[in-house]
# Entry
Amino acid sequence: MANLNLPDPAAKPRIVVVGGGFAGLNFVNRIDSHRYQVVLLDRHNYHTFAPLLYQVATAGLEAPDICGPLRKTFRGKPDFHFRMLQVHDVDPVARRVHTGAGPIDYDHLVLATGTRANFFGNTNIATHAFPLKTVPDARRLRNQIFQTLERADLTDDPAERQRLMTFLIVGGGPSGVEVAGALSELRRHVLTHDYPDTPMDQLRFVLVEGEEELLSTFSDRSSREAYRNLEEMDVELRFQTLMTDYDGRTATFRDGSTLECSTVIWGAGVTGEIIEGLSGESLERARYRIDNHLRVAGYENVYALGDVALLTNDEWPRGHPGVAQVAIQMGRRLAENLNNIARGRPTKAFRYVDKGNLAIIGRNRAVADLPRNLHFSGVPAWFVWAFVHIFYLIGFRNRLFTFLSWVGNYLTYNRAVRLVLEPTLDEELREEGVDAGNRPGLRGPATGR
Ligand SMILES: Cc1cc2nc3c(=O)[nH]c(=O)nc-3n(C[C@H](O)[C@H](O)[C@H](O)COP(=O)(O)OP(=O)(O)OC[C@H]3O[C@@H](n4cnc5c(N)ncnc54)[C@H](O)[C@@H]3O)c2cc1C
# Structure
């Protein structure tokens, strides 16, 4: 068998899992590694709790608070092996995947690679916008937010300051709503105090959405609540508005209008993280088509789980929602089924149990749609949201630290993590030819503003 320094699985079948997100993690957790050798491959050596990425981007939490090191998570699991590798392609005939460090053979392959930002082929937007899919994305966005404000504090050109202080959020789904709400709270409780020389009334957060409402996958009541809350928080909302281009300074919309802005936060679309090599028939809408036993169409021993999988049935004719619960439940179902196969027991078809939808908008502001048409908003929904998110974080350390950070932030209205960790401001100013002679320096006391 092709190796990568793995022990010979001897008589046991080898399962290769690609992706240590919600689906891969829950699969590995449940699979019986006395009966299978389990090899997990991920390009990162940690699991990311994506629902809290916006908190890292807006200085509420640090990256390690929302990540779990994969080796540590499965330390002690027998015949489990992790390799930090990007998988490039699959050869289903040879039953082999190719990685940067060489090939590895499998008996069963589990694809749980999630999604990546979709810029719909627009290279300008891909170059200049800030997606929020990974920890490096969140840290990059945090640097951008604080560095841009530092820049705004240096200029005495009002038009340039207005451009710098205009942030555009594209997409009114849960991520867009959560980021917009968090930025608005940051303005109110932190930035106003931290930047006394910068006119905070110029700081604009504009959220554009192509459809007619926010949170379109939630109940109408939650959509309306989100709208009301964001309006109260001075987020400018524009509906039926599609951004068609962004060159790093000017966003252009389909109706021809434009907006000068320093930062575009992209939450408008994702596409499946597809690994080359499987037949075209197994793909639909950039997802692997799977049956109700989670097998990729056309393959007996290749499975797909979570966001990268497309499972349609009468209940979900357009496929299941791209949420953590679907990935978790798929991971657990497949593990149980493979365990049952190994024990000569029957398998069960996957059926999604919808536990509802939660979104946070700000302090004491959240919406929760629960099964049986139960709906909460405001303080109760905020507490449900906080409890659920702490409960699902991996690891005691993460739960404890996140809980303590939130209690601290809640009591003090503070955001501790507002550090620019990879400063590029000086370099940028130099590149733009802003030398000591014409640098937009501090305003002298005589000129005022
Ligand atoms: C900002 C944000 C907020 C969200 N908020 C919520 C929320 O509040 N509630 C909710 O239910 N859902 C939320 N989601 C969606 C939720 O995170 C996803 O549904 C869930 O992560 C899907 O799990 P997954 O295992 O399919 O993929 P992921 O969790 O994305 O994991 C995929 C893994 O595969 C790895 N990988 C990908 N390609 C390769 C490759 N070629 N080689 C090696 N490794 C690879 C990646 O590094 C990653 O670790 C949010 C998502 C984002 C981005």
Remarks:
- DSSP finds twelve helices and 26 strands in the chain.
- Residues 18-24, 41-44, 50-51, 53-54, 86-87, 112-114, 132-133, 174-175, 273, 275, 306-308, 322-325, 327 surround flavin-adenine dinucleotide (CB under 6 Å).
